[in-house]
Specification:
This protein is of the alpha/beta class. The chain has helices spanning about 10-20, 35-45, 65-75, 90-95, 110-125, 135-145, 180-190, 210-230, 255-265, 280-295, 330-339; strands at about 5-10, 30-35, 50-55, 80-85, 100-105, 125-130, 150-155, 160-165, 170-175, 180, 195-200, 270-275, 300-305, 310-315, 320-325. It has eleven helices and 15 strands.
Length: about 350
């Protein structure tokens, strides 16, 4: 994953020279520039930045103000200070202020590049995964109670975002100027991503306060609603031919299921009852969304083990068909018939 680096200095000529000099490293990182702290804050809002390199003496916001803003609002982003004073006191001051290091003027572009690449490599100490389903991987993070910062890039659009986990719990999310749940919903809607994992989480406050699986389901619902709103119905033809009504027998899904099972299994089916029950529709709808999100195929039927003398097999439809069965029924055969 190519990282975004933001370089901030009020010397515009120096910015041009730095950007040109770092051009040879464009397969490792891409460079954004700002000539003051306020503009840098706007770029931080609109882009997923992995590293900030800033001068200290600037107006209207100097490097110290920018460093303070980054530490408060983007604690995961490391900052390298550019200074004209190379002293142990300056190094100590930079570290106490939250910077990971400093480089003194004048400097060689190669030295700056080495320092930047070293810092970026530390960010990805947990490794990088390509073309994976974010939902499946994040479920593993939750189950393993992992503490980490995960940077994601949507392979189809190139959009980037960040997720912050502490002991398997999602604490925060960020994508451009979106934060919290809004950013999480957007990130969870991406189907194929590149993941970069850093085995630390600098976020202290839980800004999400929601179950991960619930967030993923909500993200799929929001995505479906957006896709549905984008689809337009075709215009109706002006001259509609008159079609004579054809009388047909009304389809009875319950009878159809009961007859199919009886035909294939006879008295050995273990089926006790077959009926319609719309109260199961919500569960099957959620499971279908999970199936689509994790790309495991369409969910057509579900077995429910109640732990009681009666279990259920649910068949998806406009209204859920419920097959009440005994615990010793040939479950797999029945579900094969239904599917």
């Amino acid at each position: 994953m190519i990282k975004n680096v933001l370089i901030v200095d009020d010397d515009k000529d120096l910015l041009v020279s730095i950007k040109e000099g770092l051009g040879k490293y464009n397969e490792t990182f891409s460079v954004f520039t700002s000539d003051n702290g306020l503009d840098a804050i706007e770029k931080l809002k609109k882009n997923t930045i992995s590293l900030v390199v800033t001068d200290l003496k600037m107006v209207p916001m100097d490097g110290f103000g920018l460093l303070s803003h980054v530490m408060e609002n983007y604690p995961d982003i490391p900052v390298i200070i550019i200074t004209g004073y190379s002293t142990p006191e300056m190094e100590n001051l930079a570290k106490k202020g939250g910077a990971v290091g400093y480089i003194s003027k004048p400097f060689i572009i190669k030295d700056l590049a080495v320092k930047m690449i070293t810092t970026l490599r530390k960010e990805a100490d947990g490794g990088t995964l390509h073309n994976v389903s974010s939902g499946m991987f994040l479920q593993l993070v939750e189950m393993e109670q992992k503490t980490c910062t995960i940077r994601l890039e949507d392979t189809s659009s190139g959009r980037k975002g960040v997720l912050f986990f502490k002991e398997g719990e999602l604490y925060d999310a960020r994508m451009n100027d979106l934060q919290g749940k809004d950013a999480a919903y957007e990130i969870f809607s991406w189907e194929q991503v590149v993941l970069s994992i850093q085995n630390v989480c600098q976020v202290k406050e839980n800004k999400i306060q929601s179950d991960l699986q619930g967030l993923i389901l909500d993200a799929m619902r929001v995505k479906d609603e957006k896709n549905g709103a984008a689809e337009e119905l075709p215009a109706a033809p002006e001259n509609i031919p008159v079609i004579e009504e054809v009388k047909t027998e009304k389809y009875d899904p319950v009878s159809s299921v009961r007859n199919s099972i009886a035909k294939n299994l006879g008295d050995r089916s273990g089926v006790e009852d077959v009926y319609l029950d719309s109260s199961w529709n919500g569960l099957l709808s959620h499971m279908s969304r999970l199936g689509a999100f994790f790309k495991i195929g369409e969910i057509k039927s579900v077995f429910v083990d109640t732990g009681e003398p009666h279990n259920f097999i649910l068949k998806k439809g406009e209204e859920t068909i419920v097959i009440s069965v005994s615990p010793k029924c040939p479950r797999d055969k029945i579900m094969h018939i239904l599917n």
